[in-house]
Specification:
With 118 residues, this protein is mainly β. Helix content is 0%, strand content 52%. It has no helices and eleven strands. Strands 2, 4, 5, 6, 9, 10 and 11 form a seven-stranded mixed beta sheet that branches. Strands 1-3-8-7 form a four-stranded antiparallel beta sheet, with no helix packed on it. The radius of gyration is 13 Å and the shape is globular. It starts with a strand and ends with a strand.
C-alpha cells in the first residue's frame, strides 16, 4: 500500500494555472497506476486524469483534455497535475488516487482545494 498526500491547491483567477502534487510513500509506488479525481460541492466525485505506472500512457476526461497534464516522477514518488486555462467550473476538491493492479482505485489522499474565480 501507499499513502498519498496532495498539495498545491489554492485560489486562482480564471485563465490562470496551478500545479498539484501528490507525494506517495511506499516502495511499490512505481508500479501503481495513478490518477486525479475531483469533487465539487453537491456533486459526485469525477475522474480527471490517469497515468500508467511507467508514465508512458495518459488519459483525460473530456472536460480537461488539452488544459490539464498529468505526469509522474517515480524517482521522487510523486505525481503531478498541471492545470492551465482554469475555468470556474474546475473549482473542486482534487484527490490523488492509486490503483496497484488495474482493478480499482483503492488508495486515496485527503484532497486539496482548488478554487477558480471568474
Amino acid at each position: 500500500q501507499v499513502q498519498l498526500v496532495e498539495s498545491g491547491g489554492g485560489l486562482v483567477q480564471a485563465g490562470g494555472s496551478l500545479r498539484l502534487s501528490c507525494a506517495a510513500s511506499g516502495r511499490t509506488f512505481s508500479r501503481y497506476i495513478m490518477g486525479w479525481f475531483r469533487q465539487a460541492p453537491g456533486k459526485e466525485r469525477e475522474f480527471v486524469a490517469r497515468i500508467s505506472w511507467s508514465g508512458g500512457s495518459t488519459y483525460y476526461a473530456a472536460s480537461v483534455k488539452g488544459r490539464f497534464t498529468i505526469s509522474k516522477d517515480n524517482a521522487k514518488n510523486t505525481v503531478f497535475l498541471q492545470m492551465d486555462s482554469l475555468k470556474p467550473e474546475d473549482t473542486a476538491r482534487y484527490y490523488c488516487a492509486g490503483d496497484p493492479d488495474g482493478s480499482s482505485w483503492n488508495q486515496w489522499g485527503q484532497g486539496t482545494q482548488v478554487t477558480v474565480s471568474s
